[in-house]
Amino acid sequence: MSTPESKIEKEIREPLISNIQRYSLQDGPGFRTTIFIKGCPLRCPWCHNPDTQSIEPEISYYSQKCTGCGRCAERCPTGAIYTEVKGKETFLRNDRSKCIGCGKCADACLSGARDIVGRKIPLNEIIREAAADAMFFFKSGGGVTISGGDPMLFPDYTLELAKLLKKEGLHVALETSAFGQWQHLEVLLRYIDLFLIDIKTMDGAKCKNVIKGDLEVILSNFIKLVEAGASVRARLPMIPGFNNSPSDYEAYTQFLSKFVGKIDAVDLLPFHSYGEKKYELLGRQESYQFQNVHSMEGKELKPFLMMLIEAGFVAGQSLTVGGLIGVK
After folding, report:
1. Same domain, 18 and 62
2. Beta partners for 36?
3. What is the rounded CA–CA span in Å between residue 84 and residue 56?
4. Looking at the structure, do residues 222 and 285 belong to the same domain, yes or no?
5. What CA–CA distance (Å, rounded) separates 211 from 201?
6. Count of structural domains within the chain
7. pLDDT tens digits for range 23-82
8. Domain check: are 280 and 140 in the same one?
9. pLDDT tens digits for range 246-284
């Protein structure tokens, strides 16, 4: 007798889409459309897309757009939005702990102050929107990037999506931390033209304790992709106080030097604080550990850059700072 499917199992089979971003220049070569799948098993404290961490729908609240009409409070079924009267004034309040992400408040809002993050979008609609820019892809050498979150949290769905995109004759890139089972990546080799692999640290303890990942699995999958002849770019998010010390640089260089001429490139991605606003919109600003941490400048990574150049990578070709790999 089969057991009933849990909610999380159903969600993983058909994930929510948080955004489909067109004309992207930082998620692979050329003009690209990036599909952001909602859900990630890792918990990077610096995450600049916190809206893609959970598999559940969430509500972003743009307070500056709110007119205080109260329609959202009237429609909210759980009391997550309510009114509070102080003197002659009435204020809208939010209790995020009661929010179930149903989106009724967003549907009721006339000013665009509330937006639901994460919607079910049929595959045929995703393919239709992605293929709409095919002319720009072909002229610029671009295509479609499947990103997240992490698409490999949903391997069957990602495989089906990649197959359909390839049927349209599109260049398909996959952005992932390569945390999962090799068999799930292996079947994608036929359909993914470029793997963008995030390697967030070379310290196994940090990987496990800070971002909740298994470094041994990540590096093993990276190596297997290269050995299988896949086009791979190693993407290194450089985070102040986490992986930007001389010992971190040395560990990265020692590992990556084995792949000079075997991978497409190494992209150093300096930390930026653009994600802080998203935490605020989701009502999670207190959980963001990098508040008031300034964005890094590319010149701060010059020592690391020089180490990688000495290892054999070529600046501007097989080595970039910022990952600007779109239209030149």
Report:
1. no
2. 19, 147
3. 28
4. yes
5. 10
6. 2
7. 888 888 989 999 999 999 999 999 999 999 999 999 999 999 999 899 999 999 999 999
8. yes
9. 999 999 999 999 999 999 999 999 999 888 999 999 999
The CA distance from 235 to 169, in Å, is 26
Chain mean pLDDT for the chain: 92
User: Parallel, antiparallel, or unpaired: how do β-strands 194-198 and 232-238 relate?
Assistant: parallel
Rounded Cα distance, 51 and 47, in Å: 9
pTM, to two decimals: 0.91
Identity (one letter) of the amino acid at 301?
Answer: L
